[in-house]
Amino acid sequence: ELTAYTNQSSSQSPPLKNQFISTQTVFDPLRRLPIIHNVNVTKILLVTYFRGGSTFLGDLLQQNWNSFYHFEPLHYMTVGIRIENERTEEAFRLIKHLFKCDFINVPNYIKWVSIDVHQHLFEFNKFLQNTCYFRPASCFDSLFIEQVCLRSPIQIMKVARLSMRHIEKLAVNDLNLKVVYLVRDPRGIYSSRKLMDCQI
């Protein structure tokens, strides 16, 4: 059993059961990190196009050591095309769950990102990777991920599968959301996509 800590006011909160963390382990990366109330969390939504230079910008934004980086979570819903029509509501629900650190209620997303070929999406999250470094399996445990996320004062999410007209609706419904819209010279985007010559 593992000890991760739930929120609330006391610094000695009761431990969360977690199959990946042993109570015999002296090193507990979450022990000294306080939980940040969601209203005090800075939420940044990085909106871009495929091959728009956003990976570099995302890395810059997460230079704060305990920033939590949601890298392309909508990759779970589609590959290579934008999300439109009735699926936008599903995308909004996923985004809202993640910005609330609610990984428990997105089991299909966690299951999908745990597949070997998709695990690289979590590797962009340096805070999570550093925290679960000694217990790699916990990187994909929803309880552990949630506890790490709850201790981050800054959350960054990169999306390239929603248009700005959809993002506007999402931003209006969440006054705490800061939107960064990254635009790149279309010639550079075209050249980069052609060079990659693969599905995105």
From TrEMBL:
A biological process from GO: N-acetylglucosamine metabolic process
Pfam families: Sulfotransfer_1
Gene3D superfamilies: P-loop containing nucleotide triphosphate hydrolases (3.40.50.300)
MF terms in GO: N-acetylglucosamine 6-O-sulfotransferase activity
Domain Sulfotransferase: 42-193
Entry-linked SUPFAM superfamilies: P-loop containing nucleoside triphosphate hydrolases
InterPro entries cross-referenced by the UniProt entry: Gal/GlcNAc/GalNAc_ST, P-loop_NTPase, Sulfotransferase_dom
PANTHER family according to UniProt: CARBOHYDRATE SULFOTRANSFERASE, LD35051P-RELATED
Protein name as it appears in the record: Sulfotransferase domain-containing protein
UniProt organism field: Didymodactylos carnosus
